[in-house]
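Work through this protein:
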Amino acid sequence: MNLNKVLFLLFMVKIRFSDEAEEMMDFLRKEAICSKKERMILEGILQKTKVLEINAKYGNQIKKNMIPEFYKKKYSANNLFRIELPLFWRMLYTIINKDDEIEIIAFVLDVCDHKEYNKKFKYRNK
């Protein structure tokens, strides 16, 4: 095992949310008070972010040629992972490893429902 892999496993991952993902989190927090659906999604996100703190590569990696241009341009994402959430929602994140310091960041780019996910990845409904 090379040194980068050892360092990757030794350090806890920091989780950061994009502005868009943070807006969705705020919405879910407000709605979760009286909605079981939003509460389930929010709890799923909170649970999965705890898993990401231990294992940043937990999600399903999206093939590089499948990464939407939007994420490449806005976030300079050259890797993208997907985590499935309750009720067919998705959490999309990229991993950033700063070379000048030992820090691994799982940057949550988006939290979206299945319909929005299909739209962003240009999947068609069957």
Observations:
- The chain has a mean pLDDT of 85.
- The first strand starts at residue 14 and ends at 17.
- The domain at 13-120 is CATH 3.30.2310.20 (YaeB-like fold).
